[in-house]
Amino acid sequence: MESLLGQVPGVTFHGAGGPAMRAVGGEGVTDWVEDAAVMGIWEVLKHYKWFKRRFDEMLNEVVQLRPDVLILIDYPGFNLRLAHAVKEKLPDTRIVYYISPQVWAWNKGRIPKMAKTLDLMLCIFPFEQEIFQSAGLRTVFTGHPLVDELEEKREQVEREPSLIGLFPGSREREVERLFPLMVETARRIHSHHPEVKFEAAAASEKLAGRMRAMMDAAKLPVDNVISLHTGTSHSLMQRATCGVVASGTATLEAAALGLPYCLVYKVAWPTWVLGKMLVKVDFIGLVNILAGEQVVVELIQSDADPCQLENNLTQLLVDAPEREKLRAKLLETAAKLGEPGAHERAAAEVAQFLVTN
After folding, report:
1. Which of 1, 40, 186, 228 could be joined to 267 by an S-S link, Cβ 3.0–4.6 Å?
2. Whether 285 contacts 255, CB under 8 Å
């Protein structure tokens, strides 16, 4: 949005997103990110009526506004339906999808329909371009935006030799599932290696409060087993010797910042069972998908238990040669995300539609 303002002065924004988008777009942008951050089929079904109401409200808003360009960001279950509805009602509105949905993993049959509905796909992984382009959908690989964002976060710091980083995610539900696992693992490692320190990164003060409550409930042997800070994930990724990271974008951030880690992932069991039926990929972790091989260990569902996590973290902590080998492979894989300038390249593609109109 900021890049578009620089390239097309006078452009105005309306829509729904998070606080950072509202800060740029003003009152025309609704902040709904906390309420909309629901992950998994079962979780979505439980909130179906709420999502249906928001869908109808947004569709009516788009129809009334008649925008030159509709930009849909990620969130495929909601946004692909919105794209189809808007195309029927506003055939002259250009529809751009940014952060391509991972239909290559769970429903390739939707790609031809997307090609008929969308005017442009902006993807952030290099292997996605050919997949969508082969279906007749104009697709541009813009590079991953986190490359730009991490350039501003890099620090000249030494890694602390006995520090393990805990990254339980940014959604409340995943923190509820994963942080108790991390706390119990910290307890176990501390009992065998009392010199090891743990630091947890909370994505918000609200989540920090929940995480403190979980730590209190766990009754750790000493108060300082785990230190907890808010908004320090990128710094921690550069200071820790190794870590455990919830599946998601943070796994790419950790890779780009050279943090050796193992991945953990847990969802509601109905979601997991349905997902196993629908999703056809060899890996869950974005780094492993990007590399086309297992680079980091994935501890998923029942495998995400304190015993296995303790074993993997301890191995990373004590085996320096293997740890450095993993660090090098992570940096090599992250380099495939492209060069800095993703925001400007994405905005330039959208600007072409605005200038034409």
Report:
1. 40
2. no
Q: Which residues in 100-114 are b (16+ Cβ under 10 Å) and which e?
A: bbbbbbbbeebbeeb
Helices (H), the chain: 2-7, 19-25, 33-36, 41-46, 48-65, 76-89, 103-106, 111-117, 126-133, 145-151, 172-192, 205-218, 233-239, 249-256, 269-278, 286-291, 306-318, 320-334, 342-356
The domain limits of the chain are: 2-143+341-356, 163-336
pTM score, whole prediction: 0.79
Q: How far is the C-alpha of 208 from the C-alpha of 229, rounded, in Å?
A: 7
Closest by Cα among 58, 49, 137 to 90? 58
Residue 110's pLDDT is 81
Question: Of 127, 130, 133, which is closest to residue 114 (Cα–Cα)?
Answer: 133
Neighbours of 335 (CB within 10 A): 12
Residue 303: phi and psi, rounded to 5, are -75, -20
Q: What is residue 268's predicted lDDT score, i.e. its pLDDT?
A: 73
CA angle 126, 21, 100 (to 5 degrees): 25
* β 15-17/69-73 pair status: unpaired
Instruction: Give the CATH number of domain 163-336.
Output: 3.40.50.2000
Domain 2-143+341-356 belongs in CATH node 3.40.50? yes
Q: 2-143+341-356 with 163-336: one CATH topology?
A: yes
- Structure tokens given for 152: 């501003």
Measured between alpha carbons, how far is 125 from 122 in angstroms, rounded to an integer? Answer: 10
Residue ranges in the chain whose pLDDT is less than 70: 33-47, 104-107, 269-280, 356-357
